[in-house]
Amino acid sequence: MAKSKGRVTLPSESNFLSQTKELLERWGADAIRDSDGTKLSDDVKELDAKIYTTYFVARGHNDFAQKHMDECQQAFLMSSYTLATEATVKIEFLKDYFDQQVKADYDHDPKLWWEVYDRTENQLISTDAWYVDQCTDTVIVENCKPFHEYTVSFLAYLIWDPTQMYNHITNDWGDKPHEIPFDVRKQASREYVKDYLKQWLKDNPNTDVVRFTTFFYHFTLIFNNLAKEKFVDWCGYGASVSTEAILAFEEEYGYRLKAEDFVKNGYYNSTFCVPSKQYLDYIDFQQRFVKDRAKELVDLVHEAGKEAMMFLGDNWIGTEPYGKYFPQIGLDAVVGSVGDGATLRLISDIPGVKVHEGRFLPYFFPDTFYEGNDPTLEGIRNWLNARRAIMRKPVDRIGYGGYLSLAYKFPKFVDYIEKVCDEFRTIYDTIQGVTPYCGLKVAILNSWGALRSWHPYMVAHGLYCKQIYSYNGMLESLSGASVDVQFISFSDIMEHGIPSDIDVIINAGDAETAFSGGSVWDDSKLVSMVREWIYNGGGFVGIGEPAAYEKGGHFFQLADALGVDKELGFTLHTDKYFKDVVKSHFITEDIVDEFDFGEGMKNIYALSENTEIIVQSKDEVNLAAHSYGKGRCVYIAGLPYSQQNTRLLMRSMYYAANKEADFKKWYADNLFCEVHVYPSINKYAILNNTNEYQKTKVYDGEGNSVELTLEPGEISWKEISHE
Length: 723
Fold this sequence. Notes:
Mean pLDDT: 95
Domain Lacto-N-biose phosphorylase C-terminal: 666-717
Structural class: alpha/beta
Domain Lacto-N-biose phosphorylase central: 441-660
Domain Lacto-N-biose phosphorylase-like N-terminal TIM barrel: 6-438
Organism: Dielma fastidiosa
CATH topology of the largest domain: TIM Barrel
CATH superfamily of the largest domain: Glycosidases
Distance between the termini: 31 Å
Number of helices: 18
CATH architecture of the largest domain: Alpha-Beta Barrel
Largest sheet: 8 strands, parallel, barrel
Pfam families: Lact_bio_phlase, LBP_C, LBP_M
Shape: globular
Number of domains: 3
């Protein structure tokens, strides 16, 4: 059989022609791209492949930026908490920041834009009580209250693009110039980006696809004085602030945003914070602005006869792909980094573009491709995790990035990626556009809803974080599961009710976060609405601290439905009698290893004998189920991603939905394997999700079963029998 080709993008670089031609053939690639730190030579551009060229809109133009330093991008930053031991306190507000990335903005009057707070009293200090020493970057606050803590929130210029800074440090780029980001809301910058792109399009006739990386505003990534990440928020809008933006916002909305609206006690409105009305207004405001400016550039690309692609990363803020304005930009394609199944679905589910491309890992950088390391292991993990999600909703293309010359030194890795490319094309050609079998419809309920589909729990793109993995594991499990997933917000159900086709609602997160909901559960209308829905037959799965808000003698406002609550210390005088664990349960039938609840949750207890305690430790409930009217609830203390926890979640959802009888339709009894079914084309696939041999019994939709053995990572395709 002839080797299939296409749907793969290969990174290349100058002086690497013959090797590029070889891998172009072996991997079946039909497109070539450059990367941050590489350029394509003319001979590579003449190969028989589409040419992607990385295009930086608001960085990498230092000749312009250095002449317009007053148009650098900006952010409100907050100093460290500084203790006043006497009536005057000096706040060295820049000492914790990296001076090559951040400098104070003294072009705009600090008295008009900065804010000093007594954080002990949460009190804004009058501008008459402080002044700035610009020579030492110090704010001096007078008439202080001794042993109160003070901060200053200041407007800063961002003078080094953080992605280029990260790559600069990682790859030891030495004297390579620091790329200065500038703000297209300012007039000279806005005209420059359009004029430059017009000329660039004329100067690059061999470019077929302009790969915008990305548009204007970088996700929030600020470095400390040690040149290490101080804080990062992949969805943060903090680096899109400017005095022009705030004044334009005030003209439209009728109120002035303050420094504290962005700093938020030093939390910087991270995705984990319950969003305020002011912040939601600002997000909408910036998305509309970015949509208009980005469309201007995309239109220029189309007029030049080229395609426009956006990288889902770097300067992507304002172009959130699940936002209501994104389709109006008119992009042809989106490409993003695939760290796991959830990030794959983040890309593949995006509406409003024709082509969805995933950049797989590892990135061809020296932090992975070095002597003595085997990058193939990361490649296998990345592919097997992402492949589950591809079976539900495939991307249209895959690719890699970085220095191809590094990857070429590892033949085993090159061989494995050749296999990945062939397998991807087989999957795509078989199931693209085909609706897979879904046994349930599941809604993820949080403050963000559809806007943050598939990425609500990320601090940075697909990276581990200690207090997130217990929740993000739930999304990772769902990304490749045979269920239909929808993301809804509290405001959605308050305005429109709970969709009638939802089988199970999942609310997962720590108390007071945007994901659990915080004070939204103070609304009796919301609480009674969800209670009624469960009581009438709905299924509810709570993970961590669901519906958590201390009120009325409960911490979990759905405690009566969940059958569990959390002890806060107020009812220690009340004995917790109900500690008997059920001998067996539908939810745990597939368990083969120790339970893993991740961070877990302390002090969860059962409310009555009607609560089925399935797993507990130290008299604390880890896993429980409870009937509530015609409905059911399941409580889970935490859910890191694993094959076992994926099965645990699937069983929890089927149990909550009262659909246990349907669970073994299209089912593999080995939890390290999964079955994906495509009824309209009479095909199904059995996946081995490990790099080891697996034996499994597979049940079809009629209850019939067959045993088979799968090789490491194998997909076995079968025809659906209609006997």
